[in-house]
């Protein structure tokens, strides 16, 4: 079976789906690895390093034709989409939820599309494949580093002949994977850290990292399904913003990481809360998105300074800003998933398996993922899937 790594072409994307260490592991399992020339350049992985690990370097045109499975970090770009053929597998963080048209397009090509951002995270055997967690860890670490770099004062307590600097007071809002990593990193830099989440069960984790958990009196627990938060009601949202504003005003640095699945990120730092912060304060908004973020007015990839001197950093793709570490971790995730799916030299789909049901979006020309309408949505007939070295069936999808 031939597995091909494409060069990412999305703006600002510097990661690569496999690194030489993962190539060696996959080769030992009998897979042939093709790498698009220059695929690892932005992550400081040369074509030579891939070759030494046993991969073949190929041009993009050959790669699409030859591959049984194409692996990537994000979505296939238009050129890759145009070259897809029935029976081929495509693996990446395809983010199909909320974009049924994209899922239908993939189904129309006849590929088996597998999305790493949908790995069922609570399954113990899926932990090594959990790309959301690996990339969120990197993002949380980088958010704290970015905040420290932007802040015009010290994070740690510093006693010198030229004076004493008090430690920075850092507030982390949202204590999932990224938030906890941000807390740990800010603590290691010497800051005094407080944190808040609508899921009170995260309190012990915050405290184990040396942070102080803030409990709001005006908003009750809002734990939702699967370990995620539920969306707040309008009244809860207002009460949360008002009570949080008092805490925000007392901190030098705020790092926001709050997300609710399938919703725009909740607004936690309002315009009024921003005005209450001292000049020189810093906010890093990891929730910044085109739809709006955790902080009023933040934009992904943009830094603004408010009239009262607060620097608001709208985080873009923080994992991409650490491409070597992020690629190495992602490569471990995607190679674990590949090794799980490959049986007797070909990628085998079994939709009776809960892990596979969680990640397989399209199969044999249909959208099969339960969150995208399951097997009910038919696409244009893609032709017959190829079985040799391609996608075999084991367990019915329809
Ligand atoms: P996420 O990125 O969806 O959200 C980040 C945090 O924002 C969450 O902690 C959430 O509670 C919080 N949040 C949402 N709305 C908020 C609001 N209005 N105010 C304050 N905070 C708000 O979360 P995540 O990091 O992906 O983690 C989600 C869950 O998945 C957690 O329970 C985590 O422990 C769990 N998880 C489990 C495993 C595993 O079992 N192997 C692996 C990874 C994550």
The fold-level CATH name of the largest domain is Rossmann fold
Low-confidence stretches: 376-398
Mean pLDDT: 93
Q: What does the radius of gyration come to?
A: 23 Å
Taken as a percent bin, the fraction of beta residues is 15-25%
Number of domains: 2
Structural category? alpha/beta
CATH superfamily of the largest domain: NAD(P)-binding Rossmann-like Domain
Number of helices: 12
Distance between the termini: 26 Å
Reading off the top of the CATH hierarchy, the class of the largest domain is best stated as Alpha Beta
Bound molecules: nicotinamide-adenine-dinucleotide
Strand order of the largest sheet: 3-2-1-4-5-6-18-19-20
Helix content: 25-40%
CATH architecture of the largest domain: 3-Layer(aba) Sandwich
């Amino acid at each position: 079976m031939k597995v091909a790594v494409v060069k990412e072409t999305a703006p600002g994307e510097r990661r690569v789906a496999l690194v030489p260490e993962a190539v060696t592991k996959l080769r030992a399992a009998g897979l042939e690895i093709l790498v698009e020339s220059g695929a690892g350049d932005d992550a400081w992985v040369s074509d030579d390093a891939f070759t030494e690990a046993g991969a073949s370097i190929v041009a993009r045109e050959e790669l699409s034709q030859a591959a049984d499975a194409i692996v990537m970090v994000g979505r296939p770009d238009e050129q890759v989409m145009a070259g897809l053929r029935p029976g081929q597998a495509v693996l990446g963080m395809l983010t199909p939820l909320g974009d049924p048209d994209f899922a239908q397009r993939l189904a129309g090509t006849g590929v088996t599309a597998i999305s790493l951002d949908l790995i069922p995270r609570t399954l113990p055997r899926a932990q090594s494949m959990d790309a959301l967690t690996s990339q969120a860890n990197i993002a949380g670490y980088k958010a704290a580093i970015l905040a420290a770099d932007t802040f015009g004062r010290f994070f740690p307590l510093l006693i010198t002949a030229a004076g004493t600097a008090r430690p920075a007071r850092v507030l982390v809002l949202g204590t999932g994977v990224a938030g906890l990593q941000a807390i740990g990193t800010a603590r290691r830099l010497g800051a005094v850290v407080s944190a808040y989440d609508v899921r009170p069960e995260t309190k012990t984790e915050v405290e184990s990292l040396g942070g102080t958990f803030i409990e709001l009196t005006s908003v009750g627990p809002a734990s939702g399904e699967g370990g995620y938060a539920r969306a707040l009601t309008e009244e809860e949202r207002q009460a949360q913003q008002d009570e949080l504003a008092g805490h925000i005003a007392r901190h030098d640095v705020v790092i926001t990481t709050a997300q609710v699945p399938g919703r725009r990120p909740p607004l936690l730092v309002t315009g009024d809360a921003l005005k209450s912060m001292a000049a020189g304060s810093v906010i890093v908004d990891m929730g910044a998105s085109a739809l709006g973020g955790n902080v009023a007015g933040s934009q992904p990839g943009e830094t603004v300074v408010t009239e009262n001197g607060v620097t608001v950093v709208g985080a873009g793709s923080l994992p991409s800003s650490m491409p070597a570490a992020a690629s190495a971790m992602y490569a471990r995730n995607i190679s674990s998933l590949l090794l799980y799916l490959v049986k007797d030299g070909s990628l085998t789909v079994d939709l009776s398996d809960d892990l596979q049901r969680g990640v397989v979006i399209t199969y044999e020309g249909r959208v099969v993922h339960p969150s995208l309408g399951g097997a009910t949505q038919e696409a244009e007939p893609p032709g017959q899937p190829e079985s040799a070295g391609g996608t075999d069936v084991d367990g019915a999808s329809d």
